[in-house]
Each structure stands twice: as C-alpha cells, then as structure tokens.
C-alpha cells in the first residue's frame, strides 16, 4: 500500500471519528473525507475494524515520535524528563484535541471490541514503559516505582477528560505543576 494513500485514508478517518465518534463512523464518510470511492477505500482497508486498528497504530506512532522529541534519557535530567511527560500531555490537550477525543472514543470501543481493546491497551503499555524508563534511568528501582506510571497516566488522562469537557474550569499549568509535585513527593526517599 502506498504510504501517501494510507496516510490520506488514516487522516480522513481521524477527522471523521473526531466528528462522528467511532459508532457513527461509516466507510462512505471516510471515503468522502479522503476524496476517494468507497470501493477504493475497501481495497486498502477491507473492514472498518481494519481501519480502526491501523489508525490506532498511526496515532501511537505519532505519540511515540512526539515523545522522543521531548524526553531525552541521555541529555536531560530525571526531573527534566519527568516534566517533559506533563508538558507533552498539556501540548496534546491544547494543540491536538482531536487526538484526545479520539483516544477516549477508542477506550469506549474497546469495551465492546476485543481487538480494539488489545490494541488500545498496548498503547498504554508503551506510554507506561516510556515513563518507567525515565524512572529507571533516574536510579529508581522498578519495584519501588511500579505504580508510578499508572498514576501518571491517570493524572494526565484525567486532565484531558476534565479540561476538554469544561476548558474554563481550571488552569492546566497549575494542574500539571500540582501533578508533578504529587509524583515527586511520592518518590522522594524511594531510591
């Protein structure tokens, strides 16, 4: 499959899901958004589920590449890298809202579709492993910090959920400063 065609289809799928949610997404809507025939779309992605799994992989690739730009285990300190996770999530909330909206929709779809659930679960595994790597590089033992990645993901996704439903309710800078302090206070003395 041509990377250009695939990207065009995946971008169209993201747009449609952001507008219609997964439950309202239809192949003909994606084909229209991608400016192609539905039969051509089915040639590349025979089913909606194939397309959903491919989009989730594409979104994960975006997150991984983005994270590599802000987290640098070799050049940044532990605290700089810890801060980078929260800064990255704040950037997504403010500048890439569609990704968060679609991510929440994947969570819902994962409650009824085992294949989507497994693919979505793997995206969270990657996120938590990236967080764990920062802590391990910072000298924290895996046993001592095993729940920290789960807590950090919950704090970050909680920010998305609350902020995106009511953007004026709280200040993201204050929220993420508090979240970072919670994590730092939790790990103090755990080396």
Notes on the protein architecture:
One of its GO terms (molecular function) is DNA binding. Keywords: DNA-binding, Transcription, Transcription regulation. InterPro entries: Homeodomain-like_sf (IPR009057), HTH_TetR (IPR001647), Tet_transcr_reg_TetR-rel_C_sf (IPR036271). The structure is a single chain. The chain has 191 residues and is mainly α. It folds into 2 domains: 1-46, Homeodomain-like (Arc Repressor Mutant, subunit A); 49-187, Tetracycline Repressor, domain 2 (Orthogonal Bundle), CATH 1.10.357.10. The protein contains 10 helices and no strands. The protein has helices at residues 3-24, 27-33, 38-44, 48-70, 78-95, 97-110, 114-137, 142-145, 148-165, 172-187. α1 packs across α4 (48-70). The longest helix has 24 residues, at 114-137. The model has no long low-confidence stretch (mean pLDDT 93).
């Amino acid at each position: 499959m041509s990377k250009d065609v695939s990207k065009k289809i995946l971008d169209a799928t993201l747009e449609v899901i952001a507008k219609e949610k997964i439950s309202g997404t239809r192949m003909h809507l994606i084909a229209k958004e991608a400016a192609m025939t539905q039969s051509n779309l089915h040639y590349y992605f025979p089913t909606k589920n194939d397309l959903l799994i491919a989009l989730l992989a594409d979104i994960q690739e975006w997150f991984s590449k983005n994270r590599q730009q802000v987290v640098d285990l070799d050049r940044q300190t532990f605290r700089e890298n810890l801060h980078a996770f929260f800064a990255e999530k704040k950037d997504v909330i403010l500048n890439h809202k569609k990704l968060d909206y679609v991510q929440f929709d994947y969570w819902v779809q994962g409650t009824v579709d085992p294949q989507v659930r497994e693919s979505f679960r793997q995206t969270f595994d990657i996120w938590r492993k990236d967080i764990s790597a920062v802590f391990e590089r910072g000298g924290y033992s895996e046993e001592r910090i095993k729940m920290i990645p789960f807590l950090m993901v919950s704090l970050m996704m909680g920010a998305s959920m609350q902020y995106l439903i009511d953007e004026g309710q709280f200040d993201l800078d204050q929220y993420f400063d508090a979240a970072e302090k919670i994590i730092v206070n939790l790990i103090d003395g755990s080396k």
